[in-house]
Task: inverse folding
């Protein structure tokens, strides 16, 4: 599988994770499946809302966007598009920074961890690494 | 380089690798569709399933009772502060264990405020009604506040993430507090105090509170965790409004920092 295929797969998993946490936040899911950490403390803290929307919903949008870009990037017409690679790199880079800030809040401000948030953070980091490798690849291809 | 391009799907010319790539693409899209179906199905199940383990829920057929919560402090205190709380809410637990001891010692016991607690058991919490009912059962024996403190202190032992049988833990928590243990246990089993909790719940919903903990301090309504200094500053402001002529009581946080947000 190519990097963009992996990105699409990971984004799809993230999309459902974001949807799960968003449904919880809006009261459609009673309790979170959270075995070893303090998901609710994190999800009900004031930091769980950003610019009027739950952070989970922002995550949902982020994963939807990366999924869409990765699928577009798999089409033959865009398979070597440097522009698309750059957009994915910037998007996932921003996502990695944002998720790093959220992890900082969990560790030093809220003093509680949410395992789903950590899982998401791992996925965003992998997406960023894949996007960086993809961008390097398209740049090398353009130079040849 | 050409080999690499074929492997990663880049730079191929039409017709040269199509036969090799198409099965990969087909398998990939099949995986995507399979994950999508599983994901949508799981979310649909999770959001529509009955709330298992929710042993207590609002029952409109129960007789209506008049109750205004639980009060601590002097009836002549110049200011009353009301908390709408949920025993299973983490921020309420944080307030009860970190801030409230100081509130009681420095403000309630000194006659500056009267403190009222009203249950607001939120839908999202599986075991919170059980806790409210148990606390009201302890109140029948005059031990509400002791039970309130025990419930919050042991929140992680009986909440929805810890157990499907909260009553067992709640009965254990009440054992050293109440004089008549059999009566207390029976009260929990019969959910005898449920109409009272429903009355409290309706007081909270009538105010359209955004969540818990919510505090009514004079003409202010705050719905977030408060540190003692934040809380005291708000109390001072309200007392100053009530007694503009005589001035606010001399307090130890008159120069407290501006109100901080929860979690800071």
Result:
């Amino acid at each position: 599988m190519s990097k963009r295929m992996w990105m699409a797969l990971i984004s799809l998993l993230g999309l459902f994770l974001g949807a799960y946490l968003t449904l919880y936040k809006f009261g459609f899911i009673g309790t979170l499946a959270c075995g070893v950490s303090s998901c609710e403390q994190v999800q009900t803290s004031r930091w769980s809302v950003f610019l009027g929307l739950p952070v989970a919903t922002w995550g949902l949008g982020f994963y939807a966007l990366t999924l869409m870009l990765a699928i577009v990037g798999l089409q033959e017409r865009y398979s070597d598009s440097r522009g698309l690679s750059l957009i994915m790199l910037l998007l996932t880079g921003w996502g990695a920074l944002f998720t790093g800030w959220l992890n900082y809040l969990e560790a030093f401000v809220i003093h509680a961890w949410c395992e789903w948030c950590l899982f998401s953070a791992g996925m965003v980091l992998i997406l960023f690494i894949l996007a960086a490798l993809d961008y390097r690849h398209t740049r090398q291809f353009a130079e040849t | 380089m050409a080999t690499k391009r074929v492997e990663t799907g880049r730079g191929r010319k039409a017709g040269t690798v199509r036969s090799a790539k198409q099965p990969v693409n087909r398998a990939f899209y099949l995986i995507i569709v399979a994950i999508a179906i599983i994901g949508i199905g799981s979310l649909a199940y999770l959001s529509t399933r009955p709330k298992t383990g929710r042993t207590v829920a609002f029952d409109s057929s129960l007789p209506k009772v008049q109750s205004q919560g639980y009060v601590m402090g002097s009836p002549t205190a110049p200011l009353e502060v009301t908390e709408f709380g949920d025993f299973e809410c983490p921020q309420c637990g944080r307030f009860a264990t970190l801030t409230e001891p100081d509130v009681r010692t420095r403000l309630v016991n000194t006659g500056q405020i009267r403190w009222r607690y009203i249950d607001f058991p939120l839908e999202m919490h599986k075991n919170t009604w059980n806790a409210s009912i148990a606390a009201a059962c302890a109140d029948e024996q005059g031990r509400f506040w002791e039970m309130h403190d025990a419930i919050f202190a042991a929140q992680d032992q009986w909440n929805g993430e810890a157990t499907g049988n909260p009553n067992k833990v709640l009965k254990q928590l009440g054992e050293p507090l109440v004089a008549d243990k059999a009566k207390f246990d029976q009260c929990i089993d019969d959910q005898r105090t449920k109409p009272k909790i429903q009355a409290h719940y309706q007081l909270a919903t009538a105010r359209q509170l955004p969540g818990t903990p919510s505090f009514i301090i004079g003409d202010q309504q705050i719905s977030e965790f408060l540190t003692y200094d934040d809380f005291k500053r708000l109390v001072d402001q309200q007392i100053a409004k009530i007694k503009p002529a005589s001035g606010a009581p001399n307090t130890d946080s008159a120069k407290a920092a501006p109100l901080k947000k929860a979690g800071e």
Remarks:
- The CA atoms of residues 23 and 127 of chain B lie 51 Å apart.
